[in-house]
Design a protein that fits this description.
14-stranded antiparallel beta barrel, alpha+beta, single chain, Serine Threonine Protein Phosphatase 5, Tetratricopeptide repeat, 2 domains
Length: 467
């Protein structure tokens, strides 16, 4: 592997490792692991989560409001109507229907429990707790109902606390078919001359083991706005089977707050990343960001995000020119998310990046766009797909590669992720989630050294804990 390939592969590893690892995590609106995420989730995501608690069934043959008016005391009909309201995202309507059913059948534990779940998803944790405690006092309660009621009782009590904690431990396996980012043409430029790749520099497959550990906390200050603050510590480790010079460790600390105003939600944050490549310090990055998010309609949310980083690269025994990349990075992102149905969310974002570097041939401008689709499959399972296109334009030619040619890279990435709680297969594994991810990346360049493609796949098992 030549120095250009090492440098390119190392940069790719640093920039993508965290995204690849955390892309395997369940989307936040499914986990709803913190108070901030629950508040940002919106009614549509809460409805989708509540729908998972309702019985699965076809939308065909659903009762109408006219049917309810004709048979207001028909419990089964009203239950079907309430579940239909949940699936359509009408949580408040479902709460009204279920409240009437509770008055008609106060002894029916399943009706009361579903009512409590809807109240919980509507953030009425106090009333949800009261209803669940009533369910648990009922004699002869079936074991499955008692188990669900106990779980939601703990969640309702936790939601009423001002301070929340969570932790994640993930372990997984990854595969790449071009881990060394070898050019597709079989040769690389050096001072304008095409040099054939030797056997060690040609396209190579590799596997890796991944580990992610994360601790987080958030505190709600209360009041009418519900301002809050949060913090998170994360450790990532990737161990290669073949190219051990690309073994990666990353430590990250982040602190921020959520400030809610009448017109928008503001999330300022600061963070620090410390990255080791093959046991040598490779990158220290100090970061600051601001996200401004506003709900535009019942189904549409928009956001604007700014990020500033100072990336301090250090030379390593395998990469003697890493310091050339040291410099600031400025990001601006404009995005919007549309939720046409409780189980579906489409989001589109565009990014402008300005990367400064100590050596101008490593400085560039990036324009990129990402289209993402999230679909909830029910019972906690989900599918996520994304497509990203990007254009990178560098400042000046790199004379060590080729004189007089300014590097232009065009890339696109397709991603797919399927995840599900393992409790679908065995109920004691309620706190474990399994994910399978696939990614294809293709980059074309006017400099043959940077023209390549790669397939990779990852399988990850995650344990989640929160209070």
């Amino acid at each position: 592997m030549n120095m250009n390939q090492i440098g390119r592969a190392a940069a790719i590893a640093v920039l993508l490792a965290a995204a690849r690892a955390w892309a395997q995590q369940p989307p936040p609106n499914i986990d709803q692991e913190s108070q901030d995420q629950r508040r940002r989730g919106g009614l549509e995501q809460k409805a989708a989560a509540a729908a998972q608690e309702a019985e699965a069934g076809s939308l065909a043959g659903e009762p109408t409001f006219e049917d309810i008016l004709r048979s207001p005391d028909d419990v089964n009909l009203n239950m079907r109507f309430a579940r239909a309201q949940i699936r359509k995202g009408d949580l408040r309507g479902a709460a009204t229907t279920l409240e009437r059913l509770v008055m008609l059948r106060p002894e029916d534990a399943r009706v009361r429990l579903l009512y409590a779940v809807v109240l919980y998803r509507l953030d009425d944790a106090v009333e949800a707790q009261r209803e669940i405690e009533t369910v648990l006092r009922a004699p002869g309660l079936p074991p499955d109902v008692r188990g669900e009621a106990s779980r939601y009782l703990a969640l309702a009590r936790a939601r009423q606390r001002d301070t929340h904690y969570d932790a994640r431990l993930s372990f997984g396996f990854g595969w790449d078919d071009n881990r060394n980012a070898a050019p597709g043409g079989g040769g690389a430029l050096f001072q304008g001359v095409v040099v054939p790749l030797d056997a060690g520099s040609q396209r190579k497959k590799d596997t890796n083991l991944q580990f992610v550990g994360s601790l987080g906390a958030s505190h709600d200050f209360g009041g009418p706005r519900g301002h809050s603050m949060f913090g998170r510590l994360t450790y990532y480790r990737g161990e290669q089977t073949v190219y051990r010079i690309l073994n990666l460790q990353a430590y990250s600390a982040k602190l921020g707050s959520v400030l809610r105003t009448r017109w928008a939600e503001l999330t300022p944050s600061v963070s620090y990343d410390h990255v080791l490549l093959h046991q040598s310090i490779y990158l220290r990055s100090r970061n600051a960001g601001l996200r401004v998010e506003r709900r535009l309609s019942r189904a549409m949310t928009g956001w604007l995000e700014f990020g500033h980083s100072y990336q301090d690269f250090a030379n390593t025994p395998q990469l003697a020119t890493a310091e050339d990349r040291t410099g600031e990075q400025l990001d601006s992102t404009l995005g919007a998310a549309w939720t046409p149905a409780p189980a579906d969310r489409l989001s589109l974002s565009v990014l402008h990046r300005r990367k400064f570097a100590r050596q101008a041939f490593d400085a560039y401008r990036r324009e990129s766009g990402t289209l993402e689709w999230l679909h909830l499959l029910g019972r906690g399972a989900f599918f996520q797909g994304a497509f990203t296109g990007q254009l990178d334009r560098y400042e000046i030619p790199d004379a060590t590669v080729v004189s007089g040619v300014v590097r232009h890279d065009d890339g696109w990435r397709a991603q797919a992720l399927l995840g599900a709680p393992l409790s679908l297969f065995w109920s004691p594994l309620r706190d474990f989630t399994g994910t399978i991810g696939y990614e294809y990346f293709r980059q074309t360049s006017n400099v043959v050294n940077y023209d390549y493609f790669n397939h990779n796949a990852t399988v990850l098992l995650t344990y989640k804990w929160g209070m």
